[in-house]
Amino acid sequence: MFSTLGIHQRKLLLVFGLALAGLVGSLMMGDAKPWAEIDWLDVLGEGGAALALAVWMLLILGSRPAGRVTDLLTLGMGFMFLAMWQDNLDEFIHLPAEQFWDQWLESGAMPVGIVLLTYGLVHWHQEQLSINQQLRKREQRFREHRFIDKLTQLGRVDYLKAQLQAVMAQLPTRNMVLLMVDVDNFADVNRRYGHQEGDTLLYELSELMLLNLRQDDLICRYAADRFAVVLPDTGLAQGRTLAIELTQAVQHFAYKHKTRGDTLYQTISIGLADWKGETTEALVQRANQALFLAKSSGGLGEVA
After folding, report:
1. 174-183 per-position pLDDT tens digit
2. Rounded to two decimals, what is the model's pTM?
3. What percent of the chain has pLDDT over 90?
């Protein structure tokens, strides 16, 4: 948490700097109230609220990266904290009536803070929905570790076959397309940069393809640098479109070597087979045959 706070130093300095300025200004322009006039119940309520807002703000900054959502949440809580802080100072210091800034800070900062916080929470909600969607795409109903490839964290070939059978049972009269995706010349990457760098590239390519699939699509690691993509409820034409989109996404992906800084661009070949009511093994075999054609001609291959 505290290491993350370092990237938010300016936000913290701004909020607590303004709080300190309010304290100094109140001390310079006002007079301390006698102890008998202090309403300790108000001190407890207003001071406790200010302290809680400060803690919430630190928790948010300690758990989030920099960005618009973080800025909105921080500014919202910051304004609310300043309003409660200044309101609490009034319990100890009496300011002359002509010092309008005190009333403005108490009355104006709170609604501004509430609006900013609400706006930030709306964007935070949208952010969480997007993250949850990606998590659901990754999970695709499997939980057992024996079905997960350790490198890419995708399902393995045994999981792929089990899910193909499940989809076939659910969609006996509907369409489905299977894509076999192979990374072109991947052996050259391993040979030139080493297997560790190749593994990192393979993981990032799997993440990229995952992000470019639909909610109900499934991607698994079939073998080495080959992936299988199941497109349920998808016709042949739409399958071609999705395959082309995957190809373009990989082509535009600029992978950076982790130590040397070299930029590596990759291409993929895709074999496409639409389900014709045959067995899982037959469908996989046709998709692999289509991939062989794609590797020979480049781009996208199909087998009738």
Report:
1. 789 999 999 9
2. 0.56
3. 23
Sign of the torsion angle spanned by Cα atoms 34, 37, 41, 46: negative
Degrees to nearest 5, angle at CA 121 with 115 and 123 = 110
Q: Does domain 145-302 have CATH number 3.60.15.10?
A: no
- Please tell me the distance from the alpha carbon of residue 103 to that of residue 99, in angstroms, as a whole number: 8
Long-range contacts of 140-144 (CB under 8 A, 24+ apart): 140/218
